[in-house]
Amino acid sequence: MNPVMVEYFRQKLLAWRDELLDEARATLTALQEGGNASEADIADRATSETNRSIELRTRDRARKLISKIDEALDRIEAGTYGLCEETHEPIGISRLEARPIATLSLEAQERHERMEKTHRDE
């Protein structure tokens, strides 16, 4: 992968990370402001709690995604970004475009998923 492409993915990862952090800040603000409101109706309260739980789960997934983005940025700095962790062959650009945090080539990922399915079914 040439330096221009590496920089393109670095910028893409940084923008994605910033977007997730902005959403997390907005969620935190909304939860702090909404935490003071108490609904009189039990159904409204249950709906609010369910929405809060869903939002917190979404933020937890985002937190894990931010960690994977940071790992991808570390691979860029180390010069290993875009290389499959199993085969050490280049990961296809189209795969990286679709999933910039990918660590396995498409073929390696498919093998990994087949192995998971095989062991899960046992």
From TrEMBL:
<dbReference type="InterPro" id="IPR012784">
    <property type="entry name" value="DksA_RNA_pol-bd"/>
</dbReference>
<comment type="function">
    <text>Transcription factor that acts by binding directly to the RNA polymerase (RNAP). Required for negative regulation of rRNA expression and positive regulation of several amino acid biosynthesis promoters.</text>
</comment>
<keyword id="KW-0963">Cytoplasm</keyword>
<comment type="subunit">
    <text>Interacts directly with the RNA polymerase.</text>
</comment>
<keyword id="KW-0479">Metal-binding</keyword>
<dbReference type="InterPro" id="IPR020458">
    <property type="entry name" value="Znf_DskA_TraR_CS"/>
</dbReference>
<dbReference type="InterPro" id="IPR037187">
    <property type="entry name" value="DnaK_N"/>
</dbReference>
<feature type="zinc finger region" description="dksA C4-type">
    <location>
        <begin position="84"/>
        <end position="108"/>
    </location>
</feature>
<comment type="similarity">
    <text>Belongs to the DksA family.</text>
</comment>
<protein>
    <recommendedName>
        <fullName>RNA polymerase-binding transcription factor DksA</fullName>
    </recommendedName>
</protein>
<dbReference type="InterPro" id="IPR048489">
    <property type="entry name" value="DksA_N"/>
</dbReference>
<dbReference type="GO" id="GO:0008270">
    <property type="term" value="F:zinc ion binding"/>
</dbReference>
<keyword id="KW-0862">Zinc</keyword>
<dbReference type="Pfam" id="PF01258">
    <property type="entry name" value="zf-dskA_traR"/>
</dbReference>
<dbReference type="InterPro" id="IPR000962">
    <property type="entry name" value="Znf_DskA_TraR"/>
</dbReference>
<dbReference type="Pfam" id="PF21157">
    <property type="entry name" value="DksA_N"/>
</dbReference>
<dbReference type="GO" id="GO:0010468">
    <property type="term" value="P:regulation of gene expression"/>
</dbReference>
<feature type="domain" description="DnaK suppressor protein DksA N-terminal">
    <location>
        <begin position="6"/>
        <end position="76"/>
    </location>
</feature>
<feature type="domain" description="Zinc finger DksA/TraR C4-type">
    <location>
        <begin position="79"/>
        <end position="114"/>
    </location>
</feature>
<keyword id="KW-0863">Zinc-finger</keyword>
<dbReference type="GO" id="GO:0005737">
    <property type="term" value="C:cytoplasm"/>
</dbReference>
